[in-house]
Design brief:
- The protein has a single domain (3-119), classed as Response regulator (Rossmann fold, 3-Layer(aba) Sandwich), CATH 3.40.50.
- Helix content is 44%, strand content 19%.
- The chain has helices spanning 11-23, 34-44, 60-69, 87-95, 109-119, and strands spanning 3-7, 27-31, 48-51, 78-82, 100-103.
- It has a five-stranded parallel sheet with strand order 2-1-3-4-5, with helices on both faces.
- Helix 1 crosses helix 5 (109-119) and helix 2 (34-44) packs parallel to helix 3 (60-69).
Length: 123
Amino acid sequence: MKNILFIEDESVLQKTVGSALKQEGYKVISATDGESGFNTAKSRKPDLILLDIILPKINGFEVLKKLKETPETKDIPVIILTNLERISDIDKALESGATTYLIKVDYSLEEIVKKVKKALGEQ
């Protein structure tokens, strides 16, 4: 069973996306701020990370930077799932090592699950 770390401060989204992923057979680990998300990634070494940008304590860009600089986490695929739509934000995330950049309002739960499967090489 693959582990997915979902770093997201909106509890409704945590539950909704989390349950969709669980239905597909994934184990979902939740973190509600950037600092605990990074620490969880280091200690649990998930197979994939879903990461919001707007987070308490450390924003998603900083979390992504730290993940990619840390030997234990640098190879974990990271999918950004955010409401930030600016091209500069998308470019910054992809240049910093994100696998995929998804804008929350543009994707259904099914599409998010498909992107996760693709990033994990399951499609």
